């Protein structure tokens, strides 16, 4: 064996940073979204997928999004009065990670890579809404597939509209140049 691991120390540190970001954003933006927007979860989606997109961009590694989503959700579940819906976001983080495999977890200023990231984000957000609506709310499956999934899909679109231009600007400015081991 060559002694190399999949995750460098820098990647592990970034997972920790993005898990903390996940928790902070979910505990602040989620309740804010429900209060300001009358129960519409779009800021929850922004908190989740903004974090996942940045984590994927910063590391470019398979598994980072899953780790951030699972660990971040677990910590958030310990700190919130309604913890179970976070399971839907953890599941959507795993789906997001799998979908980002299509472009090898890389962000370059190409239409293809940005389109893959946009598709992965929007589909994963919709998936989170369907999981949460189906298992943790008292409405029908049809309601979860249309209304609640649709609201989360809108949250994913908002996230894409805000986050991808930020990442494109960071890429263009060569901000990603982090020393690797």
Short description:
This protein is 73% helix and 0% strand.
Write the layout of secondary structure elements.
Blueprint: H1 9-36, H2 42-59, H3 64-79, H4 86-99, H5 111-135, H6 141-172
Helix pairs in contact: 1-2, 1-3, 2-3, 2-4, 2-6, 3-4, 4-5, 5-6
How would you describe the overall organization of this protein?
It is built from six helices and no strands. With 181 residues, the chain is an all-alpha fold. The chain has one domain (9-172): Orthogonal Bundle (Arp2/3 complex 21 kDa subunit ARPC3), CATH 1.10.1760. The protein is globular, with a radius of gyration of 16 Å.
Fraction of residues in β-strands: under 5%
**Any guess at the CATH architecture?**
Orthogonal Bundle
Low-confidence stretches: none
How does the overall form come out from the CA principal axes?
Answer: globular
Radius of gyration: 16 Å
Give, in order, the helices and strands. Answer: HHHHHH
Biggest sheet descriptor: none
Helix content bin: over 70%
Distance between the termini: 17 Å
Domain module count: 1
Can you tell me the CATH class? Mainly Alpha
Quaternary state reads single chain
Mean model confidence by pLDDT: 90
The number of helices is: 6
Question: What are its keywords?
Answer:
single chain; 181 residues; mainly alpha; Arp2/3 complex 21 kDa subunit ARPC3; globular
């Amino acid at each position: 064996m060559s002694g190399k691991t999949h995750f460098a120390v820098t990647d592990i540190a970034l997972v920790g940073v993005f898990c903390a970001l996940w928790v902070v954003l979910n505990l602040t933006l989620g309740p804010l979204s429900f209060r300001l927007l009358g129960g519409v979860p779009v800021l929850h989606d922004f908190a989740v997928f903004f974090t996942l997109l940045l984590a994927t961009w910063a590391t470019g590694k398979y598994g980072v999004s899953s780790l951030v989503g699972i660990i971040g959700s677990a910590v958030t579940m310990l700190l919130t009065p309604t913890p179970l819906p976070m399971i839907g976001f953890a599941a959507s983080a795993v789906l997001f990670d799998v979908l980002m495999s299509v472009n090898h977890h890389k962000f370059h200023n190409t239409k293809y890579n940005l389109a893959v990231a946009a598709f992965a984000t929007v589909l994963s957000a919709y998936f989170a809404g369907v999981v949460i609506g189906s298992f943790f709310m008292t409405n029908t499956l049809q309601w979860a597939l249309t209304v609640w999934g649709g609201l989360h899909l809108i949250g994913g679109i908002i996230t894409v509209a805000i986050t991808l231009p930020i990442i494109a600007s960071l890429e263009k400015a060569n901000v990603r140049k982090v020393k690797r081991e």
